[in-house]
Amino acid sequence: MSDQAHEMNTEKRATSEEQWQHNNDAYLEAALQWLRVRLNRLAGAPPAQTPEPTPEPARGGFFRRRETEKPRLALPSADPYAAELEQARIALEKAESVEPPPALNILGSRLGLSRFEQEVLLLCASVELDTRIAGLCARAQQDPHLSYPTFVLALALFDDPAWDVLSPERPLRQWRLIEINQPGAQPLTTSPLRADERIVNYLKGLNYLDDRLTPLLVPFDVVPQHALPPSQDTACASVERTLRLTSGNGTQPVVQLVGIDPLSKQLVAQQAAHALNLNLYRLPAALLPRQTAELETLARLWQRESVLLPIALFLDALDHEASAESADKDRLAAASPLQRFLARSRGIFLVATREIRSDLSPAVHAVEVDKPAPAEQAAIWAEALDGAAGESSQRLAGQFNLNADAIRQIVRTAETEASGGKVHDHLWAACLASTSPRMDRLAQRLHPVATWDDIVLPDEEMELLRQLAAQVAQRARVYDHWGFRRRMNRGLGISALFAGESGTGKTMAAEVIANHLRLHLYRIDLSAVVSKYIGETEKNLRKLFDAAEDGGAILFFDEADALFGKRSEVRDSHDRYANIETSYLLQRVESYRGLAILATNMRGALDEAFMRRLRFVITFPFPGPRQREAIWQRAWPSETPVAELDYDRLARLSLAGGNIANIALNAAFLAAEGGTPVTMPLVLDAARTEYQKLERPVNDDDFRWVGQLPPPEGSVSDAVPEAEAIG
Q1: What's the pLDDT tens digit per position in 600-656?
Q2: Any bridge partners for residue 282, and if so which?
């Protein structure tokens, strides 16, 4: 549609709204005139023959008659108001015959109000619309203190009265159209009636959300400016189709949006609501009142608003955090208000959940909403970068799992921070920065400094490490561009087992890969993951894997045998739930799209099912003499003053790389304390201490140095080690 056509439609719609407002005002004026005539007619009746009772104070500030005395509302035998009443009736019928009809008629049609109920509502609202009505009510009820509408006044005032108007199941009370002030033991029929403020404004043509709901609701004011990616657009079409069908057959439309990404579900909900011309509001389920009366009021108000306005409600019902000890109890308690709200209210509801829940409504339609697929994310990266990303878009999409808004926000941040056209240099760092906060709360982040030159392994194991790093870097090309993702629905993650004795370089290898791939490395703290409470371990692992997938983080499970141990024979409930935890881990490790590294000293303790699902199994052997010599040569940084050392002699010490690193560090401290370079006697002294720590037999001859004297103090060996020690 052109801008000119859009402006013409806007002007036409504005003119139509102005005309309707004019007609509605004319109708209210005619209705109030008709009502005044009826009140004057009723007030003109002769006074009752019984003496007027003396008013007495009543609770609530009102004066009322004694319970034994009833107001007498009678009409004179001759009706002097017949002609005026007929003229007012004709004017009223003419005013309400317009199209579209006045607000009161629309309200009556939508809420099922009878003609008499519409007249009662008009009487209650007229006190707010016309200052003369209160005095006429007092005159009609023959009591100056009864300057308000009552049911008994309405029953006497209008033709064809119906007693069931007092029922709480009838629209006036069910929809909270009127408020009843019934102090003490005052009868319902003589209690003051007042039209709800929201309804009075509606009758005047002001249709806005009830201000009692606004503190709880968050509007989605901005319509998404970008088209949804194809996978989410399909989900959006499914939501639209479901809402149209369920609304058409008169059932309660409840659509459950299932997935782990809140923003993607919000975008799909917004697009679906926009396509159906609905205003969407968001309500976190945690804000639903737990008190039954408050929840009932909220349900009635929302149901009324959903009739008066084209609105839909997005209920964010994602799992809330609860203490481990009472997690199940709290989760059930949190679900109860949501269940009651959906059961007691009507309207269009979009419920965001993590998993399909069948307890929310008997007719829930579930639609899965995921983040954009990797290929779609690559297209979003390219679009946000004006198509200039090229290979960078593919690599970013392959490594980070982000929704569309997050991608565009990262690009804007990178463009703001970059200078001289170096936007791409900032993208990777911006992705890591945006995804790391969630992981930092769940695991310990390691800061890798080791490189390929720092690690010493046999050639075969070294080649496996390089293959592992290459698969992580090239997975987007193989999975998406070469079609493997279409043929495989699981096993797309990359998992590896690092097995070997303590100190053989497993942690350093993980650091090397993280440093090479420029990814964050997180060591999983088992004490923060494993819980004695049933179901808590799985919940902790789920949060961990979900957060890691977004940022492409490398998960390093140290001492993995404690978490990935063999499933045992079921003897009691603890064995059963322990096996459930292991089975859950099997599924998550296989479905995790990032790199998961399991490190263990006890390969045989791992469950065989894990071994089948591992892409790489790399054994870290105890270093032989050649490897130990290479490790010794790289044990000290280049800045450390090191005298000439006998690396062949040091290589004969049967130690792993981690022990060698400890000895090198301790020898450096000894040298710093003595004001000398690192010498063989100092290294051997540190080695003796390490042997004693390991409780190995110590032969003094093995740690005695009888070689050349160390160089003069302050001199530095010409030999410069290549890199830091293995750890």
Answers
A1: 888 777 767 667 778 899 999 999 999 999 999 999 998 999 998 999 989 989 899
A2: 218, 314
User: What six digits make up the tokens of 61?
Assistant: 């500030």
Interatomic CA distance for residues 30 and 544, integer angstroms:
67
Q: Are 207 and 254 in contact, with CB atoms under 8 Å apart?
A: no
Closest CA to 369 of 475, 486, 232: 232
Helix or strand run (H / E) with residue 618: strand 616-620
Backbone Cα Rg of the chain: 39
Going by C-alpha positions, the residue among 29, 352, 329 that lies closest to residue 203 is 29
Residue for token pair 């403020």? 197
DSSP element (H, E) containing 558: none
Contacts of 591 (CB under 8 A, 6+ apart): 490, 492, 493
Residue 318: predicted pLDDT: 74
Alpha-carbon span 532 to 327, nearest angstrom: 12
DSSP codes of every residue in 368-404: E--PPPHHHHHHHHHHHTTT--THHHHHHHHH----H
Decide: residue 725, CB within 10 A, 0-12 exposed, 13-18 middle, 19+ buried. buried
Give the integer Cα–Cα distance in Å for 304 and 605.
Answer: 62
Helix (H, G, I), strand (E, B) or coil at 299: helix
What the block records as the tokens of 368 is 């899965």
**pLDDT for the residue numbered 423:** 67
Rounded to whole angstroms, the Cα distance separating 578 from 558 reads 19
CA-nearest of 372, 241, 367, 260 to 318 is 260
Contacts with 572 (C-beta within 8 Å, 6 or more apart), sequence order: none
**Distance (Å, whole) CA 410 – CA 416:** 10
β-partners of residue 349 are: 254, 313
Closest listed residue to residue 44, CA positions, set 177, 147, 184, 140: 140
The confidence score (pLDDT) of residue 723 equals: 34
> Which DSSP letter does residue 615 get?
S
Using an 8 Å Cβ cutoff, are 703 and 688 in contact? Answer: yes
Q: Which residues sit opposite 642 in a β-bridge?
A: 678
3-state secondary structure of 601: coil
The CA–CA distances, whole Å, from 174 to 13, 169, 304, 310, 615 equal: 34, 5, 10, 20, 63
